[in-house]
C-alpha cells in the first residue's frame, strides 16, 4: 500500500459529500474517489441484507480503483454493514465508518444527555447508544428517526421554508427533550446544520450540534497518519461516480466542489 493511493468514499447519495468535502479541506493532498449509490437511495428504509450487498459491491469497485482506504460515509451502511465488510475486505485496506469517530468524540466531552437524529435504519439498529455507552455508560442517548430529512436534502430542499417546517417539527418532539448535544446522525444532515442550530437558538435551548463530517475527517487524518499513509502531494484529480444520474444530485454536488466536480455514471450492478 502506497501513501499516494486515493481514498474511497461511498454513500447512498449526496450526503457523503459532506464527509468528502471535510476530508478535502483538512487533507488537500489526498485524492478522493467518491461513489454515490443514487440508484438505491435511500438506504434508510432498506433491509440489512440489501445494505450489505450494496456496500460489498461498492467497496469492491473502490478497490479496483486502487483505494488505500474506504470511508463508509453513510450512517445506515456504517451501522448495518461495517462489521460485515471487515470480514470480507483485504486486511490492508483501511476501513473507517462514520459512527465510531463520533462515539469517541463524545467520550472526550462532558455531556450527560445526547440526542441523535438519523434514518429509520440507523435508529433501529441501536448502534449509536451501543457504541457511545461502550465508551461511556453514563451518557444517556435519546434517538429519533427522521425519515423525511435525507430525501428532502437529496432533492435540494434545505435552507428554505419547507426544510424549516420539517426540521422544527422533528426537533420539537418529546424524544429529544432535555438534551445538551445533538448528533447529526446522517451524512446528509450537515447541510442543515445551521437550521438545526437556529432552531435551538430561537427556542433558547443550549444544545451543541455535532457535525459528524468534521469529526470523521479528523479521525481519517489520525488513522492515515498512524498507518503511515498520508499523501504528501495531490496525485491526480478527484473522481465522483453515481450509480444513476440525477439532476438534483449534480446541483447539490456543486455546493461542495463547484464546477470542478465532474459526475460519471457507473452502475456497477448492470450486466
Any overview of this molecule?
The protein has a 6-stranded parallel sheet, with helices on both faces. The longest helix is centred in the first third of the chain and has 17 residues, at 48-64. Helix 1 (16-26) crosses helix 10 (212-226). It contains 11 helices and 10 strands. The protein folds into 2 domains: 7-97 and 214-265, Rossmann fold (3-Layer(aba) Sandwich), CATH 3.40.50; 100-212, Rossmann fold. With 271 residues, the protein is an alpha/beta fold. Strand 3, helix 3 and strand 4 (94-97) form a beta-alpha-beta unit. It is globular, with a radius of gyration of 18 Å. It has helices at residues 16-26, 48-64, 75-88, 100-107, 120-125, 127-135, 149-154, 161-171, 193-202, 212-226, 247-257, and strands at residues 7-11, 32-36, 69-72, 94-97, 113-118, 140-145, 181-184, 208-210, 239-242, 263-265.
Amino acid at each position: 500500500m502506497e501513501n499516494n493511493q486515493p481514498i474511497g468514499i461511498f454513500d447512498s447519495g449526496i450526503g457523503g459529500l459532506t464527509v468528502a468535502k471535510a476530508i478535502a479541506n483538512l487533507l488537500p493532498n489526498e485524492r478522493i474517489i467518491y461513489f454515490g449509490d443514487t440508484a438505491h437511495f435511500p438506504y434508510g428504509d432498506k433491509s440489512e441484507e440489501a445494505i450489505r450487498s450494496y456496500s460489498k459491491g461498492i467497496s469492491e469497485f473502490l478497490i479496483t480503483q486502487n483505494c488505500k482506504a474506504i470511508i463508509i460515509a453513510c450512517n445506515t451502511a456504517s451501522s448495518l454493514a461495517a462489521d460485515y465488510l471487515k470480514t470480507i475486505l483485504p486486511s490492508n485496506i483501511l476501513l473507517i465508518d462514520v459512527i465510531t469517530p463520533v462515539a469517541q468524540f463524545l467520550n472526550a466531552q462532558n455531556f450527560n444527555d445526547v440526542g441523535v437524529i438519523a434514518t429509520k435504519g440507523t435508529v433501529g439498529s441501536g448502534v449509536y447508544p451501543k457504541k457511545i455507552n461502550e465508551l461511556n455508560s453514563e451518557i444517556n442517548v435519546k434517538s429519533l428517526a427522521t425519515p423525511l430529512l435525507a430525501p428532502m436534502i437529496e432533492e435540494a430542499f434545505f435552507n428554505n421554508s419547507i426544510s424549516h417546517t420539517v426540521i422544527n417539527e422533528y426537533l420539537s418532539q418529546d424524544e429529544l427533550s432535555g438534551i445538551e448535544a445533538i448528533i447529526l446522525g446522517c451524512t446528509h444532515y450537515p447541510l442543515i446544520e445551521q437550521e438545526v442550530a437556529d432552531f435551538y437558538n430561537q427556542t433558547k435551548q443550549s444544545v451543541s450540534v455535532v457535525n459528524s463530517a468534521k469529526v470523521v475527517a479528523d479521525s481519517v487524518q489520525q488513522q492515515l497518519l498512524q498507518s503511515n499513509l498520508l499523501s504528501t502531494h495531490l496525485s491526480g484529480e478527484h473522481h465522483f461516480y453515481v450509480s444513476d444520474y440525477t439532476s438534483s444530485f449534480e446541483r447539490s454536488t456543486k455546493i461542495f466542489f463547484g464546477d470542478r466536480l465532474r459526475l460519471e455514471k457507473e452502475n456497477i450492478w448492470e450486466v
